[in-house]
Design goal:
Layout: H1 2-6, H2 8-66, E1 87-88, E2 103-108, E3 117-121, E4 130-137, E5 142-144, E6 148-154, E7 166-168, E8 187-194, E9 205-211, H3 220-230, H4 235-240, H5 243-251, H6 253-256, H7 258-268
Parallel strand pairs: 2-5
Antiparallel strand pairs: 1-3, 3-4, 4-6, 7-8, 8-9
Helix pairs in contact: 2-3, 2-7, 3-7
Length: 281
């Protein structure tokens, strides 16, 4: 009777109650939906890993089959066309003999860092094997003992050395760690250089395609808990930085519950991540 007396307000109240009930039911179904999504995602990831392993084996076979053929010569390798003549290694190395570590006369010349010396290598060395480089201390470097000496190194081009010896630039603008790995924004071209004392063939400064893998501290567990418990109010979207979608979700009662369930699936499978493109921790 009281609602009837209120007229339009009573109908509005009844509508809001129905919408809230729908949102509550969908919210209660969220844990079950999240569990099913996780099971399906784990099964899909196992099958994907199997396919990736097969593809990696095929790529390794192709690499092994092509190791006996000579690599094509580019303009950057024009300095080293004649393998019988030693060339500087790395060929873009510039010594800095005035550095304090190069000005200690009590240090043996053969123990100086690469920044104090210049080395020449034979590009006809057996790739992947240990070889000897002929090194000379810079005239302005101070040291004791013979200024000409040999130093062992692993015969390899700089960009093919162990990745642990690479120092690369951080992520580029627009680099997104989440999303499809086939997306262009999921990768970036980094400027890399080898470790300071690494003797290698070719240039020590090179470009390298790298996967975006940075993070700003957003937790996947927290996002999933918010999606399951308060997803109807857009809490998960607000937490991940998608504030526009969060506002729309809040004032639409979680998209009448449908949006809530969809976001539970997307968050649980990791398809939705932080708005800045970073990884979960």
């Amino acid at each position: 009777m009281r609602l009837g007396r209120l007229g339009g307000l009573g109908q509005l109240w009844q509508t809001l109650r129905k919408l809230a009930s729908i949102m509550l039911v969908c919210q209660l179904l969220s844990p079950l939906v999240a569990f099913v999504a996780l099971c399906v995602a784990s099964t899909a990831s196992i099958s994907t890993q199997t396919v990736d392993t097969t593809m990696d084996m095929q790529e390794q076979v192709q690499i092994l089959s092509t190791t006996t053929s000579p690599a094509p010569v580019t303009a950057d390798d024009s300095c080293c066309l004649d393998d019988t003549i030693p060339h500087s290694c790395p060929n873009d190395h510039i010594p800095t003999p005035l550095h304090p570590q190069c000005q200690d006369p009590s240090v043996s010349c053969s123990t100086l860092s690469l920044s104090c010396i210049s080395c020449n290598c034979s590009y006809s060395c057996k790739y992947g094997a240990t070889s000897n480089a002929s090194c000379t201390a810079h005239p302005k470097a101070k040291c004791e003992g013979a200024r000409n000496f040999t130093r062992q190194f692993l015969c390899s081009y700089c960009y093919l050395t162990d990745e642990e010896t690479h120092r690369c630039s951080t992520r580029d603008i627009g680099c997104r760690s989440v999303g499809s790995p086939t997306s262009k924004s999921h990768w970036y071209i980094a400027n890399c250089t080898t470790r300071e004392d690494t003797i290698c063939l070719g240039k020590q400064v090179f470009s390298k395609k790298m996967e975006c893998n940075w993070t700003e501290g957003c937790s996947w567990k927290t996002a999933l808990i918010l999606s399951v418990s308060l997803g109807g109010f857009g809490a998960d979207r607000f937490y991940l930085g998608h504030w526009q979608e969060g506002i729309g979700k809040l004032f639409s009662f979680g998209g009448l519950g449908v949006w809530t369930l969809v976001d539970v699936v997307l968050v649980s499978t990791g398809y939705i991540g932080p708005a800045d493109g970073s990884l979960y921790i």
